[in-house]
Specification:
InterPro entries: PAP2/HPO (IPR000326), PAP2/HPO_sf (IPR036938)
Number of helices: 8
Protein name: Acid phosphatase
Number of strands: 0
Radius of gyration: 19 Å
Distance between the termini: 34 Å
Structural class: mainly alpha
CATH architecture: Up-down Bundle
Order of helices and strands: HHHHHHHH
Keywords: Membrane, Transmembrane, Transmembrane helix
Strand content: under 5%
Number of domains: 1
Shape: elongated
Helix content: over 70%
Largest sheet: none
Pfam family, one: PAP2
Length: 223
C-alpha cells in the first residue's frame, strides 16, 4: 500500500509543479512585483531569516553534544523525555538538513532555473546551462527546505507541535515568494524535499534498536 501512495504522491507533486510553472509562477511574481509595498517587503524579508539553516545546525549540534555528555556522565535530564530522544532528534535534524541540503544544492545546479529578478530585469523566464550558478539557482528554495526540515522533524518527534511548526515554515516559504526571491514552484519543491528526507530518515534514526545515534560520530560505524 505504501509504494502505491508514494507513487501517487509523486504524481500529484509533479502535476502541481508543472501547473505552477505553466500558469501560476510568472503572473503571480509579476503581480507581487507591482503591488507589494516596501514595508511588507521588509517584514517578510525579516521573516525569511528563519529559513537560515545555520541557526538550526548550530542548535542541533549543541543539543547533540549536551545530550551525549548527559548520557555518558549519568546526568539527570531537566526534560521529561530524557537525553536519548533529544540525541536522536538532534541527529535526525542534522541528517535531514544534510540530505535535504545536498538534494537542494544538486537540483539548483542541474535545473538552473532563473530567479524572478531575471524576469523583472531581463524578461528571462526559464532555465540556463547546467551549473550556471547565480542567478540561475532558483529551484528549489533552500530557505524553505531548511524551514520545513525543522518543521518536519518537530512533527515527527513532537506531534502536538506539528501545526505551529508547519505554519511557521509555510510563512517562511511565503516570504520567499512575496519578496520575489523565488517562484511558488521553488518553495513547493523545497518543502517536498525537506519533508521527504525527514520521513525517510526518521525510522533509521529514531528506532530504539539503532544505538549508533547515541554514540559520538567517530564511533557510529563501530559494532
Amino acid at each position: 500500500m505504501r509504494p502505491i501512495r508514494s507513487k501517487a504522491s509523486l504524481v500529484l507533486l509533479f502535476a502541481l509543479l508543472l501547473a505552477c510553472t505553466l500558469w501560476v509562477d510568472r503572473p503571480l511574481s509579476m503581480w507581487l512585483n507591482a503591488h507589494v509595498p516596501n514595508g511588507l517587503n521588509i517584514a517578510f524579508d525579516t521573516l525569511g531569516n528563519l529559513g537560515d539553516a545555520g541557526i538550526y545546525i548550530v542548535l542541533a549540534l549543541g543539543l547533540y553534544i549536551w545530550s551525549l555528555n548527559g548520557l555518558a556522565r549519568g546526568w539527570q535530564c531537566p526534560f521529561k523525555a530524557g537525553f536519548d530522544p533529544i540525541a536522536r532528534a538532534s541527529v535526525l535534524l542534522l541528517a535531514t538538513m544534510a540530505l535535504g541540503g545536498s538534494v537542494t544544492w544538486l537540483l539548483k545546479r542541474v535545473v538552473a532555473r532563473a530567479r524572478p529578478e531575471e524576469l523583472f530585469d531581463h524578461g528571462i523566464y526559464g532555465v540556463g546551462e547546467f551549473f550556471a550558478g547565480k542567478p540561475y539557482d532558483s529551484f528549489p528554495s533552500s530557505h524553505t527546505q531548511a524551514a520545513f526540515a525543522v518543521a518536519g522533524v518537530i512533527a515527527i518527534v513532537a506531534p502536538r507541535w506539528r501545526w505551529p511548526a508547519l505554519a511557521l515554515a509555510a510563512l517562511v516559504a511565503l516570504s520567499r515568494v512575496v519578496n520575489r526571491d523565488h517562484y511558488l514552484t521553488d518553495v513547493v519543491m523545497g518543502a517536498a524535499v525537506a519533508l521527504s528526507c525527514a520521513a525517510f530518515l526518521a525510522p533509521r534514526i529514531l528506532n530504539k534498536n539503532q544505538q549508533w545515534p547515541l554514540r559520538a560520530p567517530w564511533r557510529w560505524w563501530r559494532a
